[in-house]
Amino acid sequence: MIISVIGASNPATREHVAMAEEVGRELARRGVMVVCGGLSGIMEAVCRGAKAEGGTTIGILPGRESGEANSYVDIPIVTTMGYSRNVIVVHTGQAVIAVGGAFGTLSEIAHALSDGIPVVGLKTWPLTSNGDGIDISGSIIQASHPSDAVDKALEAATAKNNDC
Q: 79 pLDDT exceeds 90?
């Protein structure tokens, strides 16, 4: 199984970085591969955590050079697509864990939700309604801590796979 982890590159808060690193550790302990945007901040933290537990990491890079990847990425994928690579990041995983995040993270959340990919949030964007006033407050599965986020992401991914 592969889980996508998304969040801000820089500046990412210390709290978010610590949570992302623990998410990476927990995913690796459970034998789950991590995919992310492959750069700094949350992406580097989740990869660092996964590698600390012997996990495998995939970085979907925005530019032209595999050397752009953080040092914890095992498999760098060069896209030359800039932010458009966000679609690839979320579609590579069976579920998404969003840790904090800026506007790039918000776009990834939107791509995932619009395509039925489960999103678990750790102190990320609060969604309440769309432009038509439709309540979307339950669209992100809220998690209270990193292992809770991993539990919920794996549960949602398994349920989604069973529905297919």
A: yes
